[in-house]
Structures are given as C-alpha cells and as structure tokens.
Amino acid sequence: MPIVKLTKRAIDALVPPKAKQAILWDTEVKGFGLRIMASGIKTFVVQYRNAEGIKRRMNLGRFGVLTVDGARDLAKLKLAEVIVGEDPADKVRQVRKGMTVSEMCDWYLEEARAGNILGRKNVPIKTSSLDLDESRIRTHIGPLIGNRIVKHLTIAIVEQMQTDVKNGKTAKPRTGGRGGKATGGPGVAGRCVGTLQAILGHAKHKGLLDTHPTLGAKKLAGKKRTRRLSTTEIEMLGKAIAYAEANGENPVALGVLRTLLLTGYRRQEGQAMHRSWLHPDRGYVMFPDTKGGAQIRAIGPAAIRVLEAQAEIAGNPHLFPSAVGHGPFTAVSDCLRRVCGLAGIKGVTPHTLRHTFGSVAGDLGFSELTIRAMLGHASQNVTQDYVHIDEALKLAVERTSNEIERLLARGAEKQRALQLAA
C-alpha cells in the first residue's frame, strides 16, 4: 500500500484487501503504520530493527480504541526505546508469558487470521477452521478457564475443563442465527482440548511460553459416526423427496440434497460449488479448496444431471445460489430434516449421506482404498493432468451414483403411484 500521512480520514477510507492483510505506512514517523486485515480489523503497528539488526513488528492497539495521534505518540516512545538499545517487542513478549488463557486465545485468533501462524502442511490456517476454534473458545474454553494464567495451567485443569464440557456445564443457546443449543458432549470436549493444546503449542513456538504447560493431557475420543441409510431407507427418502417436490419444498434445497446423496461430497463442498468448477465432459469437479486442500473429484452422470438442471442467477457463480446476495444456498440441513420427517427416518445428518455413498460403494465390491479416493480422502492433486484422472475411479463413482439414483427413483415411483391412486 502507498505511504501517506496517517489521518482518521485516510484510515476511514481504507478498503480491506481481498485476502490476508495490507499495511499503510506513515510519512511522518518512519516505522509507524496501520495494518488492515481482510476482515476489516485495523491495528496500529510499529516496525524497527533491534540492536542485533533483527526486524521486529509489534501491535500498538486497534484503531478506534487508539486515536491516530495517540498511536503515533506511542510509536515514538517505542522507537525511542530502540534508540537506547532496548527491544520493546521483546518486553511485550516477556509480559505475555503472564497472559491469561483468554488473552492468549485472543492473540492466537488475531495472529492466525493475519496469516502469521501456520497450520498443517505449513500453510496459514483456514478461516473455516479458525471460526470453529473461535466458537469453542467463546462457548467453552473462555467461560471455564479463561481467567487462569497460562503458565500455571496443569494437565489436571485442562482435563477437568474437558469433563465440564462433556457434562454440559457450558451448554447454552447458539447465537449468530444458528438454532438449537450448544450442549457439549465427549466429541466437543475432546476438540476443545485439541484447540487449546494447539494454541499453547503455537505460543511456545512463537516464544510466548518457555514450555508447553499441559503437554500430555488426554483427549476424549469422539463417538465415531457410523450411521448410513439402508437400501430401504434410500427408497423411503426418494419417496419423501418426490412428495416434498410436489408440495412446494425449495427446489434448490432438494438439488443440494440429491447432489450429496449422489456424490458423497461434504455438505459445504456440495452447497458451495461454483459452475466453473464442474467439467461434465470430463466427469470431474475441480475444487480449489477442501478439507484436504485443492482436489479433483470424480462425479457421475446422475449427479451431473442434477447440477445441470439447476437454475442460474445472474451474477451468482454458485450452482446452488442463495435467493439473496451472491453467496451459496446454506440450509440443506433444514431441508434434510423436513424430508426425513416425511420419510419417518431418524438420526440422519448431511454426513450420513456421505457415509451412505461410501457404504453403497462397499456393497458394490469396491475396495477401501478406492472408496477413500471417491470421498476425497486420498490424494487427487490438482497438478494432475485432468485427462488422466483414474478411469477406474470414475467407473466406481458412476456405478455407486447410478445405484443410489436407482433406489431414489424406485421410491419416487411409489410416491407417484400413491398420487395416481388417490
């Protein structure tokens, strides 16, 4: 970004970058600047080289909490410390060793969202993962141990937090437009421990902690989800989908539902697909990002027919567009709940549909390795030549998709017979 004199007017006019962050440097005080993140958060920073010649950058405070003049004066004080041989960033780091859990979690979220903390495969942590981390922090970790000093944490304290989450001590209604209640349970409890342990590990790596205070804490294993639809239940779902379609159910929602059944894609993968990602002539979808990174995923003709039948909204790139704005449709879970209610089927989530796709493939005799590749667990790197996608994998996906389509059609035919009889 250009170098200008930082003023309130100039900062108010800043447009957030599309990704990561940008820094606007001040012309009046060298090393004083303002960092703006893609989320719109604006933070004053100061940058310098310490006595060893190492470049340091430290946050001064958020714009709005600090005025421009106040932040500039604070930057001058920090730079004056540097002139006499001190390292203000190191002093802050030493103070941070006495941080509370809540303070360290806030540090982690800000640094990770700025791309300064790397996750698996040495790439910045995904926004979706950070959103889940923040939810666990705000709902469970903060209320239970947020006021504790990090360096005084023990394994016993962390495992007690886990027990409290498991037993529902932090249960409360969800916010942000999400329905239901955050009830805890062993799966959530274990993931809270995993999140906290990761934060402490990053803090140690960045020099905020000398040692990891709770290394060795045992994490509860979540209950493995094994629910799948039987062939009878797939027929019942086909019958219910036909009834719902004839009685005013959202066609976009039903399109997503059919796609998840016929592909085994994850809920978000199915809902958020762009039209440009689909290559029907080659039989694949090119996902620029998934839980496993960028992937090419085979798709069968039955699912392609569903996708190509979706109405397009001008200006919206998604195959399943939202009725408002330019984003994707996001309420397939609600539709699934309604359709399952019509079918009298219980315990079904979007993940059940994914597990069903894999199970049907197993019933057809495909190996575990093939099924993992079908579901996107195996490496299907986008650097592969699209022409050379494994033809055997395409065949497996097509046969599985066709079998599920056949069962859904049988159920739909039974529903049409009932309508004719009536």
From TrEMBL:
Region (Disordered): 166-186
Pfam families: Arm-DNA-bind_3 (PF13356), Phage_integrase (PF00589)
Keyword check for DNA-binding: yes
Keyword DNA-binding on entry: yes
Signal peptide: none
Any Gene Ontology biological process: DNA integration
Annotated Gly residues bias: 176-186
All residue ranges annotated as the Tyr recombinase domain in the record: 224-399
Alphabetic keyword roster: DNA integration, DNA recombination, DNA-binding
GO MF term list: DNA binding
Alphabetical list of InterPro entries matching this protein: DNA_brk_join_enz, Integrase-like_cat_sf, Integrase_catalytic, Integrase_DNA-bd_sf, Integrase_DNA_bind_dom, Integrase_recombinase_N, Phage_Integrase
Family: Belongs to the 'phage' integrase family.
UniProt-recorded name of the protein: Integrase
Taxonomic source organism: Sphingopyxis witflariensis
